[in-house]
Amino acid sequence: MRALVASDLDRTLIYSAAALALTMPDARAPRLLCVEVHESKPLSYMTETAAQLLTDLGDAAVFVPTTTRTRKQYQRINLPGPAPAYAICANGGHLLVDGVSDPDWHARVTARLAEECASLAEVQEHLLRAADPVWVRKHRVADDLFAYLVVERELLDEDWVKELAVWAENRGWTVSLQGRKIYAVPGPLTKSAALREVARRTGADLTLAAGDSLLDADLLLAADRGWRPGHGELADTGFTAPSVRVLPERGVLAGERILREFLETVRGA
After folding, report:
1. Are strands 225-228 and 244-246 parallel, antiparallel or unpaired?
2. Which residues share a beta bridge with 148?
3. Tens place of pLDDT for every residue, the chain, 269 residues?
4. CA distance linking residue 43 with residue 50, whole number of Å
5. Helix 120-130 and helix 158-169, axial crossing angle in degrees, nearest 10
6. How far apart are CA 139 and CA 126, in angstroms?
7. 155 and 135 in contact (C-beta within 8 Å)?
8. HSE-CB for 157 with a 13 A CA cutoff
9. How many beta carbons lie within 10 A of that of residue 8, not counting itself?
């Protein structure tokens, strides 16, 4: 059986220092491997055990990193194991094949966005006008596909985020709050659509997926089996489904557990 494993990265397989959730005594903390450096500073980690599990998984299945990150942000990450032949970036807006964006896939995605939802320019203008400078630190556009804000969470008005979600939904967009970032993403821009395309190309018989945010929900539901950690938006909202396994672990140990269960499932298939 040919297995395809599509996993979100940030706060699913890799973790910033702030997201590690190392609640055990220091002497019992797991050894960590840095997998991302940005501006000469270490940024993201996984446990050394998780790194070996990912290496083994890359040998046993088609592993597809699946992220809302832009191509440039994704390419900063140095994952252990074989180089993935496919990667999904920009929430499905780019399908990388051997590190290069597939132009036909990108053209199909952008054509669908133009037909089915409000323009990026309209959404960006609303964010610039409506967001409070007191808690906004940066306005960003990702690969000309969606927008996000970098905010100070302790100052953020949570009701404003709910109001934004309603405004966006009426225009065919979705809103997701992940850490210090508020994402506004077109509804048709999904990880699940890209997953199905990779499954078609590879002839996968079994698809597995993991993720922690609302932008991962469609990915988990599209896979034959899914996993979510005990932290993140999906955990906060109590998201579950018959095909989705809910894990108790939070932080970097959740990433290790997800990879272990991926590998056990693939080997048992």
Report:
1. parallel
2. 140, 183
3. 899 999 999 999 999 999 999 999 999 999 999 999 999 999 999 999 999 999 999 999 999 999 999 999 999 999 999 999 999 999 999 999 999 999 999 999 999 999 999 999 999 999 999 999 999 999 999 999 999 999 999 999 989 999 999 999 999 999 999 888 999 999 999 999 999 999 999 999 999 999 999 999 999 999 999 999 999 999 999 999 999 999 999 999 999 999 999 999 999 98
4. 17
5. 160
6. 11
7. yes
8. 11
9. 28
- CB contact at 8 A, 232 and 220: no
Structure tokens at 260: 């272990």
Are 92 and 108 within 8 A, CB to CB?
no
3-class state of residue 55 by DSSP: helix
176 Cβ neighbours under 8 A, 6+ residues apart: 182, 183, 185, 213, 214, 215, 233
User: Is residue 13 within 8 Å of 23, Cβ to Cβ?
Assistant: no
From the centroid of its chain, how far is CA 204?
Answer: 21
**Are the beta carbons of 123 and 139 closer than 8 angstroms?**
no
Six-digit token string for 256: 């290790």
Task: Calculate Rg over the CA atoms of the chain.
Answer: 18
Report the 10 Å Cβ neighbour count for 121: 10
Instruction: Specify the pTM.
Output: 0.94
